[in-house]
Amino acid sequence: MSRSPLLAPSTPKASVTPKTSKTPKTPKTPKTPRTPMTPMTPMTPKTPKTPRTPRTPMQYITPLASPMRKAAATVRDYLEDVGHLTRLDPQDAWLPITESRSGNAFYAAFHTLCAGIGFQALLLPVAFSFLGWVWGILGLSLGFMWQLYALWILTQLHESESGVRYSRYLQLSLKAFGEKLGNALVQFPTMYLSAGICTALIIIGGGSMKLFYEIVCGPECRSKPLTAIEWYLVFTCAAVLISQLPNLNSIAGVSLVGSITAVAYCTILWVLSLAKGRPEGVSYTTVEGKSEVESVLGVLNGIGIIAFAFRGHNLVLEIQATMPSTEKHPSRVPMWKGVRIASAVIAGCLFPVAIAGYWAYGNLIPPNGILSAMYRFHGAETSKRVLGLTAMLVVVNCLCAFQIYGMPMFDIMEAGYTKKKNKPCPKWLRSAMRVLFGAIAFLIGVAFPFLSDMASLVGGVALPVTLSYPCFMWLSIKKPKRYSLMWGINMVLGVLGMALSILLVIAGVWSIVIKGLKFRFFKPS
């Protein structure tokens, strides 16, 4: 029987070879320690690139792009000026002087010129008849430079460093002199100048209307002429009608017309005086009185007429108040530009009228000035058209000047209402106030028709407002170092102006007493 393979004897196992001991590994070479890193030098930061100007979107490449850019620039300028806020009285937005603040240098020139030149310029040859050639020209030149310096002071003081704007002459005087002294020194003269000049304008304008009618109608006219009082009333009605314009900025066009007419009739008068020649008996010896006192009074009278020729300083701050003002664009810059333009034109009118008028008529010049002299000596040989045109130009100028000199009075009247009611003045009440002011000025003109003959006295009263007070205001507000150049200039000019004012007032009153004045109460000629 075959054997099962399962039962076959097992093959003897091969002898197990003993494990050989492992060969020891070669030890690794220790790693060289890393050299510590040297701290890196900080990199210089790169200069940031200028950001590229974004391109204008396609929708703005239109005719509207320029206005929109201007609007954006305006907003940006406003935001930059937020740190310099102008402090304004809330009631200023309700009053006629400061109701609108959109004025500019040209508006300032129109207002200053209309207020600074007028019928008073026609009296300058009379001043030369008292002073003579040398002292007349010297006095007029010094007076012009002095008043121009006073104008510069007022434009600089209009706005303080803290942003407060002094929009009226009285407000600046209260800041400089205090409440009691400021009211005592300034309130009466400024009101007297505004109301008194409006009254004088009614007298001169109404008289010029009468003269125009007589020239045009002629001696053969059969219609019954109006009386002097009726002509005053016609002029007053026209002036009150124009005065319904709401604020000072709204009468810029009226001031422009007044400026043009003033320059026109001044030019006509001095050109005709030169062209027609001198009448017989003209002499350039100064007018001498019967005594030394009268001679001195005559000299002072001439100085007073020159001082009266430079008017309008009580309106400078009011005119500047119509302009916007920011830290970058202060109102004094355009205002001073307008003042310089107006002053150049005023000088171009005053000096020729004074010199040509005195050359043509000498000491024959009548008390009413060069206009009366032309009608007296050359009326017969001058064309009626020229004479009538000159008279009408005077009328129009008086109507325009009435508006700017009446505006401070309108402002005072409305300020009383707004302070009491704390709301703006209604239109009907504003109109009624201006009609009332015109009626009062008309009654004063009828009752005192001789006011226009008191030029030297008015000049003495107005001289501190024009020449002295601005110098003292500079000393009080700016406080220059004692005995410095600015301190000395303003102190000398201020004291000299006050002394001249006192002398002129005394001389004006004394002249009236000696020579007499036809008072003609309620009897206008």
TrEMBL record:
Q: Which UniProt keywords apply?
A: Amino-acid transport, Membrane, Transmembrane, Transmembrane helix, Transport
User: Where, by residue number, does the polypeptide cross the bilayer?
Assistant: 105-126, 133-154, 191-213, 225-245, 251-272, 341-361, 386-410, 431-451, 457-477, 489-513
Q: Which domain of life is it from?
A: Eukaryota
Q: Which GO terms describe its biological process?
A: amino acid transport
One GO cellular component term of this record is: membrane
Q: What Pfam families would the database entry show? A: Aa_trans
Is Manganese among this UniProt entry's keywords?
no
Q: Positions of the region Disordered?
A: 1-57
Q: Where is the Amino acid transporter transmembrane domain?
A: 102-512
In its UniProt entry, what is this protein called? Amino acid transporter transmembrane domain-containing protein
| Annotated source species | Spirodela intermedia
